[in-house]
Amino acid sequence: MAAKGGNGVALSTLQVAREIGVHRSSLLRWLQSGELPEPRHVRAAGQDVRVWSREDVERARALKEAGRNGWAARREKSRRVRKLDEHRRARRLKGEIA
Q1: In angstroms, rounded to a whole number, what is the distance separating the alpha carbons of residues 41 and 95?
Q2: How many Å apart are CA 77 and CA 83, to the nearest integer?
Q3: Between 88 and 28, the higher pLDDT residue
Q4: Which of 47, 51, 59, 79 is geometrically suited to a Cys-Cys bond with 10, CB 3.0 to 4.6 A?
Q5: How far apart (Å, rounded) are the C-alpha atoms in residues 73 and 61?
């Protein structure tokens, strides 16, 4: 659904996801958690659909660039925790800590 709006082209959730390089479910999760404000809703063919403006797209892009792509953040945190655990285990074996 790429309809013309007052402030330029309006995009669907799927189109926005493709444009900024995230999965559609990521956008929906950010909306549900409140990290991203809801775009305008319209009723089309008996369904309530989101219509994203350029400003909405830029907010989503900024959220992505701020590191809110959960998979990569969780992987990095997991890697740091594993490294810390290995460091503590090594110190324990050397007798530096109890």
Answers
A1: 62
A2: 10
A3: 28
A4: 51
A5: 16
